[in-house]
Amino acid sequence: MIIDTETKRKPREMNAQDLLDAFERLDEQAAVPLSHTEVIRLAVDSAHSGHMDAKIQRLVKRAGLRYPQADLRTIDLVGERRLDRSTIASLDAGNYPGQRLNVVFQGATGSGKSHLLCALAKSACRARYRAVCIRMPDLAEQVSMAADRPGGVPKLVREYSTYNLLAIDEWLVDKPDEPFKRFPPGLMELRYDTASTAFATRPAIKEWHNRLGGDTIADAILDRIVHNTIWIDTGEYNMRQHHGQTMLEP
After folding, report:
1. Measured on CA atoms in the order 175, 176, 182, 183, is the torsion positive or negative?
2. Is the dihedral of CA 193, 194, 196, 201 positive or negative?
3. How remote is the C-alpha of 33 from its chain's centroid?
4. What is the full per-residue pLDDT of the chain (250 aa) written as tens digits?
5. If we measure between CA atoms, which residue out of 82, 88, 71, 73 comes closest to residue 237?
6. Cα 185–Cα 188–Cα 192 angle in degrees, nearest 5
7. pTM over 0.90
8. What values do phi and psi take at 82, rounded to 5?
9. Angle of helix 136-146 relative to helix 152-161, nearest 10 degrees?
10. How far is residue 45's CA from residue 88's CA, in Å, rounded to a whole number?
11. From CA 128, how far away is CA 11, in angstroms rounded?
């Protein structure tokens, strides 16, 4: 045995079950004697890997991904999409949250915007950032409900300001009502230059101002979104149709 029964008891008392499991796996797998240094290194590496994998899985689960299977590493880069491989790779590298850059996926219905948004959020989780993905209609409903709760909308603003990546799907597909239009300015003010916000949207940037009301509130929202942003045109190619045809092929 690499460690005796009494030594195993102590990691349990310290809630270091990952480390104990790693030692026990070494007990089962070791075909040749290992030095004390090798035992410690292998056990710690194994325990750390398991701990980080579990943490990432928790982050992914809490992110609320609409497409949990989405992954930037396996995005379909079929030529018709005209997606830049190096840009997708750089997003997967996870540098943009550290640089507090925003990301916008803009394109036609069916072009895979929501899938890309979920893949982006999962990539952020793999880099151990806190991410959350939410549809704009659901967020608007939360804003409406928050008005009648203790702390109100300001509490909701503070909650969403804490995520390293806030991914909003279906952004401005429908024109927001007045209560919601007052929500993004405070949120973006808290997130500006401190965290990353990503959007999946059909309307082009030139339409955003009008959909946000065309007033000073719209100016304030756009001023905190359009700067320091990575823009990705997902084009017109219908990925739903593409995948449907692929599944039907013999």
Report:
1. negative
2. negative
3. 44
4. 556 677 677 777 777 777 778 777 776 665 556 666 776 777 777 777 777 888 999 999 999 999 999 999 998 877 667 788 888 999 988 888 888 899 999 999 988 999 999 999 999 999 999 999 999 999 999 999 998 888 899 999 999 999 999 999 999 999 899 889 889 999 999 999 899 999 999 999 999 999 998 998 899 889 888 888 999 999 887 776 655 555 445 5
5. 82
6. 140
7. no
8. 60, 30
9. 140
10. 30
11. 25
Residues in Cβ contact with 144 at an 8 Å cutoff, skipping those fewer than 6 apart: 179, 180
Tell me whether residue 167 is exposed, middle or buried, using C-beta atoms within 10 angstroms of its C-beta: 0 to 12, 13 to 18, 19 or more: buried
**SS3 readout for 118-157:** HHHHHHHHHCCCCEEEEEHHHHHHHHHHHCCCCCHHHHHH
- Edge to edge, the sheet with strand 165-169 lists 131-135, 165-169, 196-201, 102-107, 229-235
Give bridge partners of residue 57 from the DSSP assignment.
none
Maximum CA extent, the chain: 74
Instruction: Specify whether the backbone of 205 is left (phi greater than 0), alpha (psi in -120 to 50) or beta.
Output: alpha
Number of residues assigned to the chain: 250
Measured in whole angstroms, the distance separating CA 76 from the mean position of its chain's CA atoms is: 19
Cα dist from 49 to 15, 43, 46, 62, 249, whole Å: 17, 10, 5, 20, 40
